[in-house]
Amino acid sequence: MEFKIGDIVKVKDIQDLIKRGRCDEELARQMSGVKFKINAFFIKPNQYELKAKTGLTVYCYEYEMEKCENIENESIKNDRKDDKVMMELLPWPELEEVGKVYTAGAKKYGPNKWQNLPDGYQRYKGAMLRHLTELEKGNDVDPETGCLHAAQIVWNAIAMLHCKMKEMSLKNNVCNG
Fold first, then answer.
1. What are the phi and psi torsion angles at 76 (to 5°)?
2. Alpha-carbon span 16 to 84, nearest angstrom
3. Are the CB atoms for 31 and 65 separated by under 8 Å?
4. What is the pTM of this model?
5. pLDDT tens string 96-137
6. What are the tens digits of pLDDT across the range 133-144?
7. CA-closest candidate to residue 5, choices 30, 38, 29, 52
8. For a Cys staple, 120 with which of 33, 71, 95, 163, CB 3.0–4.6 Å?
9. Contacts of 162 (CB under 8 A, 6+ apart)
10. What Å distances lie between residue 88 and 80, 82, 91, 92, CA to CA?
11. Do residues 9 and 36 lie in contact, with contact meaning Cβ atoms separated by under 8 Å?
């Protein structure tokens, strides 16, 4: 097999390396299951310097390693370690119900008019509590819009969040001048 710098490889048979005295148990444990990137060709023929993301560097001959398959499909980034927002956790069926509330509001008042409501935070809090009261009475669906009261509670909470974030943004801009 032909290898080149940048290839992603793994050690074929770690136990064989131990038997032949090429590594000890501790190094074998560190190498187990690790994917390495070929960093450089080394002094001896067919020997390569392999470097893992962990910083571990080992030297292997061609016959001691194999290319990792399907590496193109693996991401080098790790969104969990990068602390990215886990948008995939959002509950899509429930968000669709909230989207229906946005649609009903846009038909009644116009798209995005809700964003500039005077005293919005307090008014949305009142509306949220009215929908919560209806839900607690056992009324699942708002007869005026056909939307679920629970979805309207969420919508009003989002509108309150929008108002609060807008208020915080204005404070920060004034303070930062």
1. -75, -30
2. 41
3. no
4. 0.54
5. 999 999 999 999 999 999 998 999 999 999 999 999 999 999
6. 999 999 999 999
7. 38
8. 163
9. 115, 120
10. 12, 15, 8, 9
11. yes
